[in-house]
Amino acid sequence: MPSDIESVLVESRVFPPFPNLVETARISGMDAYREMCEEAKRDPDDFWRCLARENLVWTKPFTRVLDESEAPFYQWFGDGELNVAANCLDRHLNTHIADKTAIIFESDDGKVSTVTYKQLYARVCKLANGIAALGYKKGDCAVIYMPMSTQAIVAMLACARLGVIHSVVFAGFSSKSLHERIVNVGASLIVTADEQVRGGKHVPLKSAVDEAFEMGGCDAVRRVIVYERTGGKVGWTQGRDLWLRDAIAGQPTRCEPVPVNAEHPLFILYTSGSTGKPKGVQHSSAGYLLWALLTMRWAFDSRDSDVFWCTADIGWVTGHSYVTYGPLAAGLTQVVFEGVPTYPDAGRFWDMVQRHKVTVFYTAPTAIRALIKASEAAPRCHPREYDLSSLRILGSVGEPINPEAWMWYYQEVGRAHCPVLDTWWQTETGAHMITPLPGATPMKPGSCALPLPGIEAAVVDDAGEDVAPGNGGLLVVKRPWPGMIRGVWGDSARFRKTYFPPELKGYYVSGDGARRDADGYFWVMGRIDDVLNVSGHRLGTMEVESALVAHEIVAEAAVVGRPDETTGEALVAFVVLKRPLPSGEEAAAIAAQLRDWVGREIGAIAKPRDIRFGENLPKTRSGKIMRRLLRFIARGETITQDVSTLENPAILEQLSKSA
Ligand code: WTA
Fold first, then answer.
1. CA-wise closest residue to 590 among 570, 575, 606, 600
2. Would you say 423 and 452 are in contact if contact means Cβ atoms under 8 Å apart?
3. With a 6 A CB cut-off, is 295 part of the ligand 1 pocket?
4. CB distance 11 to ligand 1 below 6 Å
5. How far apart are CA 291 and CA 430, in angstroms?
6. Residue 426 in contact with ligand 1 by CB distance below 6 A
7. Nearest to 291 by CA among 481, 57, 77
8. Ligand 1 centre distance from Cα of residue 474 (Å)
9. Residue 77 in contact with residue 87, Cβ under 8 Å?
10. 37-424-76 Cα angle (round to 5)
């Protein structure tokens, strides 16, 4: 939860939509928006049927729209067939888009390369042929562990072309996390790179794959295809590893797309929940793609002339929907960036917007906050130093955006002529759910505004009843929508329990808390479960705790979040060691060691900011850890509430001291 949540609630500024955007937008004005919402409510089947027919290319048309007979295992367009890669590429080939630039790729060191839709099509076909030649076919699973690159997008689309289900693992995750995902998804193919380059540093990837193999249990993997990004040194297993250039050598530049059922899983993407292990969120082919594409058209009001740039990594859902599938299905030109926002300096984003004449820019509040800070320190990196006049729409995603960051984004980046779309959505929702529309919705800084047409979002109490305006409750979605999660891979019980608990009337439960104001606007307050949001990345407290206790010197650990100015939340870990309580330099050294350990167990994003040691943790007499108290301590606040139920009150003072 952002530190200035109170100010969020008293925010009263309203920014009307810009007349020039209202005039040209697909959804033009609030009346048009309301009319669409009404239409969707009146006859949802007809609403979605028309959209799915108009926006997707089907090889076998569907006759059924929504099948609720196995709810919550909903099926959309269930008797139709199509191919997702063909919907992103082939459909454009007989149009002017064929020779349009699909991707402007900029590497970490600033080298730029472009591919047209026709060239991208040929590259995807070649790789798909190469993968097929290795014996892979529809229904197989591939893990993609790659740097941000045109090649990574080609790999995703090559899988989709064959009906091979992909699971992209963020390249910042450790070999241990990679291993867990390879095993859980049952991958038989891995596509990776020798190294990735970020902020001038080379980070090995292939060696992490090798380490994952050494951990055992990856026997299903027959092949590892390696893209040569840097020429860095790699280990090699004969018969298993092959270079991507060899896999595609001599392969034809045409490959028939394999038609798949609308419900065929397009991908599995792992995300954190409230248990120790991340869960594999399963998405469909048709419904997912439809939703990714519609939100490009509705929320970003995409234009043929756009240069779209979503800064997310393909390892996250934002990269799936707004780097790979959405922009390509929409036939846009987009920027894909390998590096980080602060290299070579904090003006990198603005420099790239200027050079590539970006029109729609989509990033995370954490990046904005970091760049605000950086531009205060280095004024030449301030957005005002750049020509950003190409911009027409700005977007924000991943965490609540505090009004201060919103205003800076709006004024300094958008020069008060671009709407800021605060888009609320999740890995599970496939694409945007609640967001202002550039040509319709008045914006309030810090609010994600109103649900998209067809999305019945609501704030309810524990019994599923709508709460009154101004009151907090659970953010739910009352009716299914095409882009929704289809399952938790290999765990249907967890799917039901987590997302459609029986006491909540079969609503989709997001795990976020929210409230609506008198205008019906949504104000998302943050997670109500044990999920933290650090720099826009989801992390389960249990996940980090499991990593800590896996270390031989750790007896017990509890992890909580504390508000942080830049990263939204920061992790604070309370640790009990199997040895006497350390202090001073020794404590600092052990803390550093444990931070590195968590980095290796999960990935750098999960390293606790703060580690504090105690002889015990605050527990109730029945032995339950009182996390509420730990949150107070983590924030440095005085505990004013009654601690008489505590088994060991003295422990609070000990833990208050930082490591
Ligand atoms: C949070 C990222 C407030 C929220 C697309 C959600 C947000 C989680 C917003 C999903 C927003 C995302 N305002 N909170 N505009 N967007 N969140 O699955 O807590 O990585 O549940 O998907 O991020 O994170 P995920």
1. 575
2. no
3. no
4. no
5. 7
6. yes
7. 481
8. 14
9. no
10. 55
Count CB atoms within 10 A of the CB of residue 48: 23
Phi-psi region of 15 (alpha: psi -120 to 50; beta: other; left: phi over 0): beta
For the Cβ of 524 lying below 6 angstroms from any atom of ligand 1, the answer is yes
Instruction: Please answer whether residues 57 and 36 qualify as being in contact, where contact means their C-beta atoms are separated by less than 8 angstroms.
Output: no
Indicate whether residue 568 lines ligand 1 (CB < 6 A). Answer: no
Residue 81, both tokens: 């067939």
Q: 363-373 b/e with 16+ CB inside 10 Å = b?
A: bbbbbbbbbbe
CA distances from 570 to 94, 386, 436, 535, 563 (A): 50, 32, 28, 8, 6
Burial pattern 616-633, b for ≥16 Cβ within 10 A else e, equals bbbbeeeeebbbebbebb
Q: Read out DSSP for 517-582?
A: -TT--EEEEEESSSEEEETTEEEEHHHHHHHHHTSTTEEEEEEEEEEETTTEEEEEEEEEESSSPP
Helix (H) or strand (E) holding 78: none
DSSP-assigned states of every residue in 43-73: -HHHHHHHHHHHHS--SB--S--EE-TTTTS
Q: Is 423's C-beta closer than 6 angstroms to any atom of ligand 1?
A: yes
**Overall pTM surpassing 0.85 (yes/no):** yes
pLDDT tens for each residue of 136-186:
999 999 999 999 999 999 999 999 999 999 999 999 999 999 999 999 999
φ/ψ of residue 420, rounded to 5: -105, 115
pLDDT grade, residue 8 (50/70/90)? very low
CA 204 to centroid of ligand 1, rounded, Å: 29
The CA distance from 229 to 568, in Å, is 33
**Cα 98 to ligand 1 centre (Å):** 34
Lowest mean pLDDT, pick from 34-48, 429-443, 573-587, 645-659: 645-659
Task: Name the residue at shortest CA distance from atom 13 of ligand 1.
Answer: 400
The residue whose CA has the least distance to atom 6 of ligand 1 is 426
Structure token pair of residue 292? 């990714």
